[in-house]
Design brief:
Blueprint (H helix, E strand, L loop, with lengths): L7 E4 L24 E5 H4 L7 H12 L19 E6 H8 L6 H13 L2 E5 L8 E5 L2 E7 L2 E6 L1 H7 L6 E5 L9 H11 L7 E7 H8 L9 H20 L3 E10 L2 E11 H13 L11 H8 L3 H4 L3 H14 L1 H9 L4 H17 L6 H11 L4 H6 L2
Antiparallel strand pairs: 1-3, 2-8, 3-7, 4-5, 6-7, 9-11, 10-11
Length: about 375
């Protein structure tokens, strides 16, 4: 065990139970690159105006929630019990990447976390009906002997517990290094939506977005300032930190002359690659087409940059997708089209489709297009 006690999450009946006989915190959770944050979607989509490090403390807690058990070893928390999360200040400094956390500063964070109610919209069965719930996430905060301890409320236990549906999870490492609380909130909001499709968009009114990410009425009053100080830098930071897995862009939508909505665009690179690999591995039939990079360069009119892409992979993916559309393939064969013609035209039509639309992240967009035939290639080849 290292000299600096790591954070942990466990059930205790009193604050005194937070420490062993030597007054040390028991090591139960170790944060690593594989640590996952899991939150209920109602919490993610709630109105939250916590400062950066308060949000990060919640993330650390959420990523170690799996340690929590009841007296029977179950992963569900009965309402009758009190549960505390504790971390040594030295470990917290390491996780937050700061040199020193004073007791005064920790008290300021704790005041926000204990005293601020979270505003959650509740689902309703009647159209037009509005329901809500307001409650804090923590009932008590204690700083003693270099350790910060937080008592969870019922709402906190519900929204950070083990879910079978209605939750969002992502790697802690993707957010713990972010420098803006707004980046974290926008990242969470997009992650809560991207399960619907590997490439998609989510739109918020400017007013709604301000509430969701915690912008007060007297901050960033004009859209120009809001855009330059919050939205733009947040999107840039998300792409900087998690750009290998997720691309985020945005466009401004107008109502009349005023900008009224923000449309966030996303590309889930991991999901796209996973779906493509699964399709390649599930191919069943053989084809008489042959991969020829020189032929591809000429047929698609590739330039020096596009020629450097992994066309062998694209070719294999095109074959696999054609294989998964066997009826369409057989219809094309009935037109006496050979396999080379079908495969190379499938690549060309999807390449031209993506080239017109993808200024950035061509590879991920093209892979998604080949996997799903965004260009509608089968139908256009049948009409030739």
């Amino acid at each position: 065990m290292s000299e600096k006690e790591l954070g942990y999450f466990e059930k205790f009946e009193t604050i005194d139970d937070l420490y062993d006989q030597d007054g040390k915190v028991t090591q139960l959770s170790i944060w690593s690159d594989d640590s996952l944050v899991r939150k209920g979607n109602p919490l993610i989509k709630s109105r939250m105006s916590w400062p950066l490090n308060a949000q990060k403390i919640l993330l650390l807690l959420a990523s170690s929630y799996s340690e929590l058990t009841d007296e029977f070893g179950n992963k569900f928390v009965p309402d009758k019990n009190k549960y505390f999360w504790s971390i040594s200040v030295s470990a917290l400094e390491d996780q937050l990447g700061v040199k020193r956390l004073s007791s005064t500063y920790l008290k300021e964070l704790a005041q926000v976390m204990v005293q601020t109610s979270i505003d959650i919209n509740l689902p309703t069965t009647k159209e037009g009906e509005y329901a809500w719930r307001m409650a804090p996430l923590f009932a008590d905060a204690t700083y003693q002997s270099g350790k910060l301890s937080l008592e969870l409320t019922r709402l906190c236990k519900e929204q950070l517990g083990r879910f079978t549906s209605g939750y969002t999870q992502y790697y802690l490492k993707n957010v713990i290094r972010m420098r803006s609380q707004y980046s974290i909130r926008i990242y969470e909001l997009i992650n809560a939506e991207k399960f619907k499709a590997p490439i998609g968009a989510v739109t918020y009114s400017v007013e709604e977005l301000r509430l969701l990410i915690g912008i007060s009425e007297d901050s960033y009053k004009t859209f120009g300032i809001f855009n330059s100080k919050v939205i733009g830098p947040s999107v840039d930071e998300i792409n900087e930190i998690d750009g290998e897995n997720l691309y985020v862009g945005y466009t401004k939508l107008r109502t009349g002359r005023s900008i009224s909505h923000i449309k966030f665009l996303y590309i889930d690179k991991n999901r796209i690659k996973e779906e493509a690999n699964n399709k390649i591995n599930s191919r069943k039939h053989q084809y008489s087409s042959t991969y020829d990079i020189d032929k591809l360069k000429d047929f698609l009119n590739l330039d020096k940059k596009t020629s450097s892409y992994d066309w062998r992979y694209y070719y294999d993916l095109a074959l696999a997708t054609i294989d998964s559309h066997r009826k369409s393939y057989e219809s094309l064969k009935d037109l006496e089209l050979d396999d080379d013609y079908i495969v190379y035209n499938y690549l060309k039509k999807n390449y031209e489709y993506v080239k017109k639309r993808a200024n950035k992240n061509f590879d991920s967009y093209f892979v998604a297009s080949l996997t799903n035939d965004y260009a509608g290639s089968f139908g256009t080849m049948e009409r030739i």
